[in-house]
Amino acid sequence: MRVSGPGDGTPILLIHGIARSLEDWNESQDLLAAAGHRVISTDLPGFGYSRKGRERPGLPAFGRAMAGLLDALGVTEPVHVMGNSLGGGVSMTLAVDHPDRVASVTLVNSVGFGSEVNISALPMTYGVLAQLPGLAGTFGPRAREAGANTIRDLFFDRSLATTDQFRHAGKLAKQKDFRATFLGTAATLGAPVVGVKAGWRRELLGRVAASGIPILVIWGDADKILPPHQVDAAKAALPAARFHVFADTGHMPQVERPAEFVAVAGAFVDEVQAARRTARG
């Protein structure tokens, strides 16, 4: 967990995507904190460097974990949640299951708006095979290259797929609970081969639309993981939401364009917060 910014600042909770970690938010977190917000980022249970929770991994369990985190930190004021990819689904779940805890939601290339998802299972498959006796020499290099390609696909600007990115992803994949959490989460949401399941998407989006909570949807127009045409589905499902699409940007705008991302998302938070103060007054 990482907390930055003034203690009395507007609270913002940042949630990363599947198989990722809180480090995906580092630059954006610093910028949001510099703007006067109290910013919290954390690893979802079983991802990053965290241990898995007692519950089966999935949106409900992750949502409860985020509510528990806020309790542990003593955050009683409604937070502005920003979630990337899987983190978007967790953000929406937190908002509808704990409506008193959430002031707004910013969905960043979020899961939930279509069946298509390009999360390659090859790195994990090769990684498992490489651990079998006598197969490390054959499948170890394949696992590393497949993993590297997965990292490259996250960005429009492939220079961002640095050696440090590869090393960090490799360390995450070696954490004790990573494999079980990844497979368990994928099973609840829908596997890459069969697509993201429609049932939970319809139910969750219906609840979000009915909640009236302020929503900002941000996307990169060159996303290779969750294709950008899913923005059209988001507009249909959440007609009251606001939308911003970044040009020449991949799956993680908060990494690829941190200053521009914070300018858009931060302005949305400030506007919602001002409206809440006016309503209270």
Automatic annotation (TrEMBL):
Protein's name in the database: Alpha/beta fold hydrolase
GO MF, one annotated term: hydrolase activity
Listed InterPro entries: AB_hydrolase_1 (IPR000073), AB_hydrolase_fold (IPR029058), Carboxylesterase_BioH (IPR050228), Epox_hydrolase-like (IPR000639)
Pfam families, per database record: Abhydrolase_1
Source species: Nocardioides marmoriginsengisoli
Domain of life, per lineage: Bacteria
Keywords noted in UniProt: Hydrolase
Boundaries of every AB hydrolase-1 domain copy: 11-258
